[in-house]
């Protein structure tokens, strides 16, 4: 594992786990300390998926552009302004959805931060407005995203057909906090469920788009030089073959994001029930570490859409 990845993982471990493990004992204390965990995990999740979604948007546009350029090369004059518009419209919808998903991840982080402040202080007058505004945004964004292009993808539709299950709030001494959790428990679980489904759908869509481009690149950069005896640099040729045969990094990142959303939803349910344990925190750390570790992969493979 690269040294910088080790440092990131250790930093995340110290950041999330240590504040929690010192106060595990009774259910109520563990409950309140768990809001610390959700606030920090939510912030790291939002940061990671924000960059991932920006990159995903670029990959969607780049792979579509590659397809258009290849079509125009093979069939000169075949790409008309009307044909380009037909390609642009769904891409605009895709990019708009990714922007909304980025915003929702950020507002989810805001909610967890305000909830932690409420759990710590009990000051509804100070943090109730922040919580209410965050929840209103989350619900509005879920309504839009839940009927969008990604949600209609079969990869998402199957996931969204399921429910978030039964959620129970237990071992909460602060009445204001208990009321908030009872009112919003399903909303937050449903947001994370939606994220899991949309990341799975985005992975499926990008996988199909990237596969076409990578297949053509393999023909041009690996097969062509080999069969035509035109390999100028065998070492570079072997490296490029390795890159193009390996799964695209973007697939791994999106799968990690879906898993992170699922893990956060599980931990949220256990936090509500007063049963959050250090093992649950470690599970969050592990999933977020995987996601954060992979964020730099696409930067290191700029020549291949989706990364090598």
Give an overview of the whole structure.
The chain is an all-alpha fold and 308 residues long. The chain has one domain. It has 10 helices and no strands. It is elongated and about 75 Å long. It starts with a helix and ends in a 14-residue tail after the last helix. About 6% of the residues have low confidence.
**C-alpha Rg (nearest Å):** 22 Å
- Which of globular, elongated, flat, extended, rod-shaped describes the shape? elongated
Q: What count of helical segments does DSSP give?
A: 10
**What is the mean predicted local confidence, pLDDT?**
84
SSE sequence, one letter per element? HHHHHHHHHH
End-to-end Cα distance: 17 Å
Structural class: mainly alpha
The strand count comes to 0
* Low-pLDDT segments: 16-32
Share of residues in helices: over 70%
Strand content: under 5%
Largest sheet data: none
Number of domains: 1
Question: How is this structure best summarized?
Answer:
The chain has 308 residues and is an all-alpha fold. It has helices spanning 3-21, 27-74, 81-121, 124-145, 149-152, 154-160, 175-227, 234-245, 249-272, 278-294.
